[in-house]
Design a protein that fits this description.
transmembrane, transmembrane helix, membrane, mainly alpha, NADH_UbQ_OxRdtase_su1/FPO, 236 residues, 10 helices
Length: 236
């Protein structure tokens, strides 16, 4: 989750939430920094222990979770803290990626309603959208195993986040040095093409290695027949 925010700070040139929201007046970072947005959404679902990453709840169902021995108000407080955490990560996602209190494109005139207080309606509407995402994922996706969760985090999310940070840093330096928009887009296209090429070559080498070291379909040596009831009846 933290790595997905680094690209936002680099692109905005500030760690102030007010500056980040002001920088999204034209384009939301959910569009400009789409990989960071996707990584953050996946990470916030795992951070709040919601499906399909609700492994703590899975342990509770198997009588091994941390809240198994609690009931009544104490048990309710555990789940209340979970939903408060959902509100926090949803508000942070709204601030950093969905323009904060800014209205939807084409409806910016509504920001002046009620003396500017109508922007709170937009903010809570975006937070409610993330609530819908949480509920939707819980009713749609099956629960992941621990090994799948760890493999997805260490082999997919972290490498992609680090690579995306390098791409954003390079493009940011080029833009600060006065490079044209066409050159910046060309550089990003070349970087993405190289990464896709390397990935294709890597996958091809993996398939070739699996084919080389694959076990034969039929053994090259005689296999004794295992005696069963049917074979005993056949041979008397």
């Amino acid at each position: 989750m933290g790595l997905s925010l680094v690209a936002v700070f680099i692109y905005a040139g500030s760690m102030s939430t007010s500056d980040i929201v002001a920088a999204q007046q034209k384009w939301w970072y959910a569009v400009v920094l789409f990989p960071s947005f996707v990584i953050y959404v996946i990470s916030m679902v795992g951070e709040t222990n919601r499906a399909p990453f609700d492994l703590a709840e899975a342990e509770g169902e198997l009588v091994g979770g941390f809240h198994t021995e609690y009931s009544s108000l104490k048990f309710a407080l555990f789940f209340l803290a979970e939903y408060v955490n959902i509100v926090g990560v949803s508000a942070l996602a709204t601030t950093l990626f969905l323009g904060g209190y800014h209205a939807l494109p084409g409806l910016t005139f509504t920001e002046q309603w009620l003396g500017g207080w109508f922007t709170l309606v937009w903010f809570f509407a975006k937070v409610s959208f993330f609530f819908f995402i949480f509920v939707w994922l819980r009713g749609t996706l099956p629960r992941m195993r621990y090994d799948q969760f760890m493999k997805f985090g260490w082999k997919v999310l972290i490498p992609v986040s680090l690579f995306w940070i390098m791409v954003v840093s390079t493009l940011r330096v080029l833009s600060l040095r006065g490079a044209s928009r066409i050159s910046v887009l060309a550089a990003s296209f070349v970087i993405v093409a190289l990464v896709l090429l390397i990935n294709l070559l890597y996958e091809a080498s993996k398939k070739k290695a699996k084919k080389t070291y694959a076990e034969p379909s039929s053994p090259n040596f005689a296999v004794p027949q295992i005696p069963t009831k049917i074979t005993e009846e056949q041979h008397g």
